[in-house]
């Protein structure tokens, strides 16, 4: 079973529909014990970085981190990916999980913010999540802050600066875009995640 974590800031219905359409069993939950019992964990998110404070307040953060330490496949989507980093300039008082180094930054004033719409990925051959896709697939974004490029980055996009579009480390995956809104490419990514064995 795939647990979709509901902490009050996710595009949960669209994400659930995408997994269900692919034939996978999902549960949208606010309960840490359901997250703890899941085979895989998905952390979606839209909006302000401060919304992530609810993860700690509800005990969901501990349940997710326990799952990560147990090598369960994890997918962070948009704000859920940014949570993997140390924090964000959007909310200096809210800490990220600190699994990946760096702080998310706001796009410069030279580009229109938010970054909304389709953009291409520059992918690395080592990506497990993007296997089977073309070298520069297009995906759908909606965000004002971006994550830095790090060693775990397996795909980048450019909108002014280059930024992490996909990160992968062992059983941990993150995508800055919305795969549930990214057509066939997005469904391929979600399918690849669902088929990931524990690491």
Quickly count the helices: 6
CATH topology label: Rossmann fold
Spell the H/E element sequence. Answer: EHEHEHHEHEEEEEEEEEH
The CATH architecture designation is: 3-Layer(aba) Sandwich
Indicate the mean pLDDT. Answer: 95
Task: Please give a structural write-up.
The chain is an alpha/beta fold. It has one domain: 3-Layer(aba) Sandwich (Rossmann fold). The protein is built from six helices and 13 strands. The strands form three sheets. It has an eight-stranded mixed β-sheet, with helices on both faces. The protein has a three-stranded mixed β-sheet with strand order 5-6-10, with no helix packed on it. A hairpin with a 3-residue loop joins strand 11 and strand 12. The longest helix is centred in the last third of the chain and has 12 residues. The radius of gyration is 15 Å and the shape is globular. The two termini are 17 Å apart. The mean pLDDT is 95.
Quick tags:
single chain, 199 residues, alpha/beta, Rossmann fold, eight-stranded mixed β-sheet, three-stranded mixed β-sheet, 24% helix
């Amino acid at each position: 079973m795939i647990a979709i974590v509901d902490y009050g800031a996710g595009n949960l219905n669209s994400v659930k529909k995408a997994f269900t359409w692919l034939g996978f069993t999902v549960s949208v939950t606010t309960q840490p014990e359901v997250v703890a019992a899941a085979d895989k964990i998905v952390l979606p998110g839209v909006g302000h970085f401060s919304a992530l404070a609810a993860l700690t307040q509800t005990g969901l953060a501990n349940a997710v981190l326990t799952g990560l330490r147990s090598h369960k496949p994890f997918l962070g989507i948009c704000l859920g990916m940014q949570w993997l980093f140390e924090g964000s300039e959007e909310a200096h008082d809210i800490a990220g999980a600190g699994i990946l180094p760096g702080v998310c930054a706001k796009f410069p004033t030279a580009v229109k913010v938010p970054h909304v719409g389709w953009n291409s990925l520059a992918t690395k051959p080592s990506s497990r999540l993007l296997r089977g896709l073309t070298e520069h697939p297009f995906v759908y974004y909606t965000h004002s802050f971006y994550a830095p490029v790090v060693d775990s980055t397996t795909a980048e996009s450019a909108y002014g600066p280059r930024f992490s579009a996909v990160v992968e480390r062992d059983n941990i995956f993150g995508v800055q875009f919305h795969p549930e809104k990214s057509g066939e490419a997005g469904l391929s990514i979600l399918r690849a995640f669902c088929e990931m064995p524990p690491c």
